[in-house]
Every structure is written in C-alpha cells, then in structure tokens.
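Final paragraph of the annual report: two paired records, presented back to back.
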Amino acid sequence: LFIVGAGASCEAGLPSGEKLKGDISRLLDIRFEDGHHQNSGDTQITAALRKSVQSEGRAGDISPLLKKAWRIRDVVPSAAISIDNFLDAHRGDKEFELCGKLAIVKAILDAELKSSLRDRGRGEPGFNLSDLIGTWYVGFFQMLTENVAREDLDEVFANVSIITFNYDRCIERFLVQTLIEYYDIDTRFAEGLVHRLTILHPYGQVGHLSWQ
C-alpha cells in the first residue's frame, strides 16, 4: 500500500499546499468593472456560479456566492492550514463548498496543463518521460516492474494499492504512458491494466481521464 501526499505531485510541477492556497485566492478574486465587466478572478468559475444559481431559480444573482468566494480569498492564504481544512471547518455550508471546490478544480486543471505530464505539443500526444528523471514516479515504476516480464503484465498491479490525497490524475496518466513505452504495448491494454489498479482519492479528484 502506497500513501501519496502533495510532495509527489510537486515533483511533476503541480502546486504545493501553500502555492495552491495562493492560486485559489487569485482565482476567487472575482471583481467587476462598473458592475458588469469582469476584470479579475476566473471567468469559468464565475460562469459556473451563475449556472448554479440559475438552476435554483435565483435569476443569476451571484452576489451571495461572491461574498463566500471573497472570504476564502482573504482568509485561506493566511489563516488556514489548507483549503481542505477551511472547507472542513465550514462543513455543511454549501456555498463555501461550491466556491472552494470550483477553485480547487480550476487550479489543479490549470496546473496539470503546465506540468511535466502535459502533452508535448506540436501534435505529439503524451509527455516527455525524460522530464521525470529523478522523481518518485520513475522510482515507483522501477519498483513495480522489477522482474516483471511482458508476458506477466496482467499481474503487475496484483499486490498494489494507492491512497493519494491529491486531486490530480498524475499517477494514472504517468502509469499508462510509461507502461506503453517500457513494454511496447498498445494504449488500450495499458489503460486496462491501470484501470484495475486500486487508486483511492479520499479528498476527491478533479475528474476522470477519458479511459476511466
């Protein structure tokens, strides 16, 4: 059983807890020029807040939610151990939970796109494995595959489980591509292997990869 914390994702270029708090504060600094044109904060979060109130029949007025977003913006970076601790302190407050979780998801998705696991670009899918040399990811993969022949790959995760307190999908993405390249197997086979691996995200995750 492997217990994975924030440091693991930091090695791929994702934010630490402190950096995440700052990112969340910036994303939730939602302000409008002349009351209409948004000039700070994240526009996708604003759109999601509007969609939420509209679904409840509140005619798109997000003022109450913005007050909760600004409270997170002002308090979390300086006074909270983490965004998770802050939301736990306000458990049951759906408006705090909505604003906080939207900011977490947006911050992590943005970070994934800039991480060492991002696509190479120029039409080339997948990441550069060489960018991860010296990280725990490579050491973990070496442990997994030691003395495991290609013909025995169905059992590569037979005695392995992971609990990760991170919201990102770095482990899943890393394992699929590295299995493909190391064992020269097709994508679907590699995805099927990782799909059978028990990976628990107790705090939740920002979404599922296309094959999950």
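The closing record of the year follows.
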Amino acid sequence: QRILHHLNSGNVADRARKLRDHFELKRDEVDGRRADTSYIRFLNCDEWCVNEFQVTNQISMEGKRKNRYDVTILINGLPLVQIELKRRGAELKVAFHQINRYQHESYDAGYGLFQYVQVFIISNGVNTKYFSNNRNQAFQQTFFWTDIYNERLSDLNEFTAEFLKPCHIAKMITHYTVIGADDVIRVLRPYQFYATEALVERVKNTNDNGYIWHTTGSGKTLTSFKAS
C-alpha cells in the first residue's frame, strides 16, 4: 500500500522520474525491534535486459469513461509501453487521437499506473510509428523506426522484430528517453539512437576520432547530450 501510494502521485514527468529512482520503504516495527529499511527499484537502468517483461491485451480501465486498450507491455509489472492497433488502410491519426482520448479519460483511473507509460506505438499493420508520453504531443512528433542503414521498418512485423525486442525497448526507455526540465518526455529518433551508439562504441573500443554530420533541426543537442 505504501508503494502504491508513492507511485500514485505527480504528473507524467514526475512518475517517469520515480520510475528511474529508488523508493525508501521503512518497514513496520516487529516486537519492539527497530524497523528495517528497504530500497525498492522499479526499473533496472544499469542492466536493462534483466527486467521482467510481460505482454497483455484488452485491459479495461474506467475513469471518466471506460476504455479498453489493445496491447500493453509491462516491465516489472508496470505498463510502460502502450500499443494501439488499427485495421490495414486505416489512418494512423485515428490511433493517435484515440491514445490522446485515453490520456484524458482513463489513464489516471485507479492508482494511475497507466500514467507510467513511456512509449506509445500506433500501427495499421502497414505503417507503424512510436512516440513518447506527452499530453501535448502533436502527430508530427511521431516517428518511424529504421535499421542502421536508415531503411524504414514500417510494417508491424518488421517493427516488432526489432523495436520491441525486450533488450531494445528497455534500452530505449532507460537510455534514450529524456525527461526535460520543462517536464516533457522525449524519445530519440532512430538516427539519434544509432549515432549515439556509434559514438559510445568508438570511445570504448578504439583510439580513433569520429564525427557525425547533422542538419538544422535534426536534434543535435539531444544527440550530443545522450552521447556525453
């Protein structure tokens, strides 16, 4: 109950910080003995592959209205990835707007655990995009994933095989999602991810220099921040 009470407060950014932090749990005294203190970690950011992953579908939550969500990925029991699926040929914007509606109608129901979602995914089977949890998000801030050669993985099966591998989605959440001072959660685009990974690999395993060529508006600041 104490843990749930701790989790059930703050806005989306506050909860994202709690997700990455430790919780100091003071246990009750027993027979006059001093209470022990445990430190609860909700997400392993250092060894991101060893978190516990589960997939479920058709979870219903009732807030202002009752909503039923298509697919949810739980990491250590918390819903951190939400997937909204539409039939082939349907507009992706429909799924995007549906998630926005969930945010206002039911994500804060109960203990508000769906406010811990870090990454949303929308797909009509042919086109698949991802974006971070931000109530003021615009559709223009949804992204396709690519391979290292910048080939788009828009088909749902191709996207799932790469982006939703447990180690990869956990790394995206723990290393490539940024909580800004403006309380906006941002997730990196594929070329920012690959650039940062290449920089780190170069530093760790060689004595060589390197450079990355960027254009205006491509997210140079965020890339350099994550690399450093």
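The radius of gyration is 19 Å. This concludes the annual technical report; the extension proposal builds directly on these records.
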